[in-house]
Write a structure and sequence with these properties.
The protein has 170 residues and is an all-beta fold. The protein contains no helices and 13 strands.
Length: 170
């Protein structure tokens, strides 16, 4: 008898020598860098049927996401709370609008210097802050910008269409 290794989804099983014991070590998959395609529908969700992203096609919490100029279905419905690693906008010619559930977790939201128009219609609870380097971010809900610090660069614009917006560190 010898030592043999085998693996399974979300972990690694190691058989130790001649002992009839197994140790299981959880293995976290690396977070993917995804770009919105909107090729299936307008839903941002955890469901594999909503394959609106570049490979692997579906979103998992922890993935970093980018919204660029090639996305279809740009009026995005967040089906249930999502927790991306980060959210980046490089959309100089395609406007994006978000409604539904929250962007949550430790994510940061960044509009790059080449960003266009982005609208958050729903409350969000992300804590990583909001950086508007360029383009226009419209907060159409009092809690649209999460709870992190908000910074606006020289080429950026922040609009409020809600009655009493909550903004930290502006």
């Amino acid at each position: 008898m010898g030592c043999r290794n085998s693996s399974f989804r979300d972990g690694l099983v190691v058989a130790l020598g001649f002992v009839s014991a197994f140790l299981v070590f959880p293995v976290s998959p690396a977070a993917a860098q995804l770009t919105w395609t909107g090729s299936t529908n307008n839903n941002w969700s955890l469901a594999s049927g909503d394959a609106n992203w570049t490979a692997p096609g579906y979103f998992s919490d922890g993935n970093s996401v980018t919204f660029g100029n090639s996305g279809a279905n740009t009026n995005i419905n967040i089906v249930s709370t999502v927790q991306p690693g980060s959210v980046t906008f490089n959309n100089s010619s395609v406007p994006y609008s978000f409604s539904g559930a929250a962007i949550s977790g430790t994510a940061s939201v960044t509009l790059s210097t080449s960003a266009g128009n982005v609208t958050f219609n729903s409350p969000n609870s992300y804590t990583g802050g909001t950086l508007v380097n360029g383009g226009t971010l419209t907060a159409a809900n009092d809690a649209a910008l999460g709870s992190g610090t908000v910074s606006v660069g020289a080429a950026g614009t922040l609009n409020f269409t809600s009655a009493t917006p909550t903004v930290n560190g502006l």
